[in-house]
Structure formats: C-alpha cells, structure tokens
Amino acid sequence: MSTPDKPIDTRWTQIVADPKWSLADLREIYEFRDMLYFMAWRDVKVRYKQTILGGMWVVLQPLITMLLFTVFFGKLARIPSDGAPYPLFYFAALVPWGYFSGAMVSASISLLNHTHMIKKLYFPRIVLPLAAIIGKFIDFLIALSVLFLMMLVFGQAPSPAAIIWIPLLVLILVTTLVGGSVFLSALIIKYRDFQFALTFGIQFLMFASPIIYPASVLPERFRLLYGLNPMAGVIEGFRATLLGTTTFPSAMVAVSATMSLVVLAIGLVYFKKVENYFADVA
Q1: Does residue 18 carry a pLDDT above 90?
Q2: Which of 4, 30, 124, 280 is spaced 20 to 30 A from 133 at the CA atom?
Q3: Alpha-carbon gap, residue 139 to 44, rounded angstroms
Q4: Rounded average pLDDT over 28-40
Q5: Is position 10 within any domain?
Q6: Tens of pLDDT along 181-214?
Q7: Domain interval for residue 97
Q8: Domain for residue 59, yes or no?
C-alpha cells in the first residue's frame, strides 16, 4: 500500500546581510580564508601569465618612473630632495604609491570583474577587494626589497626606528586601501561610469601627494592639513625613516592615521549597506 507523497516545502530561505558590521562578519571572512587565498594567488598568476618579463615588471615599472623623475624633476627642474639622492628620494615614494595606486584600481573593479560569481555563489563579497589588495602586496614586498638594495648601493642606512615605523606606515596604507576600495567597488558595480573617473582620481591624488616634491616645500602651517591625505603621511614617513630626509613627521602621520580610519569606517558602512543589491545590479 503506497502512502501519499508529502507536500513539497516550497518555502525559500532568504539570506539577508546584517546592516551593521560585527564580529560575525570577521568570522565569516575567516571561514572563507581558503577562497581569499585562492583569489589572491590567482590574481598574481593571471597578472603575469603570458608575459615575456613576468614578475620583473614589478621592479621595472617603478625603476623606469624613478629614472624619468630623476632626470626631469631632479636634474632639470631642480626640485629639492631634502638632501637625499634623487633616485632614492623618488623610489622611496614610488614603492608605497605604486602599491596604493595598483591595489586601489584592482580592488575597486574587483566586484565588476566577478559579476558571474556574485550572481551564482554565496560568499562574503568583501573577499574580492581584499584578495586584490593581498595579491598586490606581494609586488609591494618585492619593490621594497629593491629599495633596500638601492640604499646599500648608495650607502644609506635606515633609522633604527624603521622596525617600528615601517609596519605602522604600511598599516595606515592598507587601512586606507581597504576603506577606499570597498567603498569604490560598491559604487562602481552600481554606477559603472565611476570606473572611468577612478583613473583620473588616482592621477590627481598622485600630484596631491609628496611624490615629485617633498612636503617641506609647503608652509609649515599647512603640513598638518596636508596629512588629511593619508598617502602624504605614509610617503613622508617612508622617506624620513629610511632616508633621514627630515625628522619623522609624527604629527602628520597621526593625522593621516586618523583619516585612514575614517575612510575605513565610511567604506565598510557603505559596503555593508548596499551589499544585498550586488546580485541585482551586477
């Protein structure tokens, strides 16, 4: 004797993100750490796949830029370098800036580049920009190693305090990157034209940061205000710590650190607010 089939439960379980960040979000990111690692490593491999020089571009790009800056802004324009050799002066700025600009662009368009995953799979969406930032960090470490080799060639020894200040400056840099990229990635996936404005914004920020010139060219009363650009404190801190161009700009770095936390908070709040709609607009 057959028994009647049970009615099929057609109810759906809807997964809704909490509008506020909590420890649960960090725990979820940790649970998806394998995916984070895979996406970061995949980004590194894809970037240099089918290239003649491969990972050498990590070094060649800032080196060529350094040479151009040294010739045109150093030798010809005679922009001051606070007593440091021009190659070191520019390369010490291009190392953190190269990581910031490259990771910001990659992370900001990461959601847009993976819309197929967003529509089909559930995972913490923030994994995508974080993976781009981590992938570019490998390039940063390689460029930083080249900077240390250049310092040996020029007979330049870093300050003993570098063991403390450099990790702190990198933390400020990464904090700014995470906050800025998660905000922009959430904005770009909904409003696609912001991806074209991103390149212009990065170029503008480059000239608004002390890369070509030192912060010492600014009147002293404006330097704290200059620290509202987080990259200003990071770059000046790198030069002061590694090259001894000036005393460590602790006040400027403190302002930049505070601003990086503000950027992080704004980015995370906005990302969490619109995360539910990513699959709809992707």
Answers
A1: no
A2: 280
A3: 9
A4: 89
A5: no
A6: 999 999 999 888 888 889 899 999 999 999 999 9
A7: 23-281
A8: yes
